[in-house]
Amino acid sequence: MAAIHERAEYGIGDFVLLHELSLPAFMDNLRLRFEKGRIYTYIGEVVVSVNPYRPMDIYSPSYVQDYKDREIFERPPHIFALADNAHKTMKRQARDTCIVISGESGSGKTEASKIIMRYIAAVTNVGGQREVERVKDVLIKSNNILEAFGNAKTNRNDNSSRFGKYMDINFDFKGDPVGGHINNYLLEKSRVVHQQEGERNFHSFYQLLSGAPENMINDMNLSRDPKAYKFVNQGGDHKVASLNDKQDFRGVMDAMKATGFSLDEISTAWQVVAAVIHLGNIEFVGEDQAAVSDQTLSSVIGKMLQVSREDLEKALCSRVIAAGGNVVDKHLNVPESIYAGQAFAKAMYERLFSWIVGKINDAIDPKHGGYVGKNTVIGVLDIYGFEIFDNNR
């Protein structure tokens, strides 16, 4: 059984073996194991994980070898055992398997999904085919890109996923990864225009301002100070002790190049981020008909989006109405234009994120590497943790 490799001082390694099936007994056992450095506990074949909020040396190559090709209850509870069991079941029975990761915000779901992917990469085709190695590299590096554009600091978690992700990892008949596919859903796009006190916008905004080279900052007419921009300063202090935005920017750039983004595509992605930053500072004037107060700023945004200043201002200050077979432009007042600008920023960022996911999918499509044989799948569902906000939009 799970507890056989652990002394009694670590509590019960499998909740199924608890003498008293009650919530207090469950929590007491979980607390005891956590205090003893045991962050994983089984409920049968389910793994309960408690975020330790500190680095732990339990994911090294020696641990990988300890859990490789073992039955799930042969070793103490560990997420490696779950990953190995899914991979082993898929190979033995030639059928698809799925790992569902759920929990509240800050519980460590995204880290768990990355640990599972790193374990599968470590135990498959060691030193083998070049294409398999490329797929594993893209699968792992894609996390950097998705976290930059889809994660944010919240009051409960410095690196909180603000989108749901379902990843299929495709394997050949030998059990080696040959591709994959990512489905993203429910990106929290309201964060683009509004953040609660103590929180930040998506990491990408701060990475651009902190890490972009000087010539890139100048070309985008940006200041490095987030306090200068409405869409990135509403939460207060923009610095996060556990994150290095400047270093993370370089990591994302390297990951995008390794994943197959061209230099033009990388530049375009960051220009859209810059355009959203500037869009938050657009102000409108007028009574019945709103107009942009600073045409220089709208020219800068137009340059980022490769549209004319006039077309941009028309999109912000009017809307098209079809009535009775006629199509007319209706001018917006100031509150309506502010709303239109926010809706534009949210839609633009959401489409950027979906485009990025699509580019990653192109890079890890099994057909990209020429694989046409039968494949099986391990699905990993990482659903984001829900929180209660003052304004859910």
Automatic annotation (TrEMBL):
Protein origin, superkingdom: Eukaryota
One GO MF term attached to the UniProt entry: actin filament binding
Residues that bind ATP: G103, E104, S105, G106, S107, G108, K109, T110
Keyword Acetylation: no
Domain Myosin motor: 10-393
Pfam families, per the entry: Myosin_head
Family annotation (InterPro entries): Kinesin_motor_dom_sf, Myosin_head_motor_dom-like, P-loop_NTPase
Keyword terms, alphabetized: Actin-binding, ATP-binding, Motor protein, Myosin, Nucleotide-binding
GO biological process per UniProt: actin filament organization; actin filament-based movement; endocytosis
GO annotations of cellular component type: cytoplasm; microvillus; myosin complex; plasma membrane
Family designation: Belongs to the TRAFAC class myosin-kinesin ATPase superfamily. Myosin family.
Descriptive protein name: Myosin motor domain-containing protein
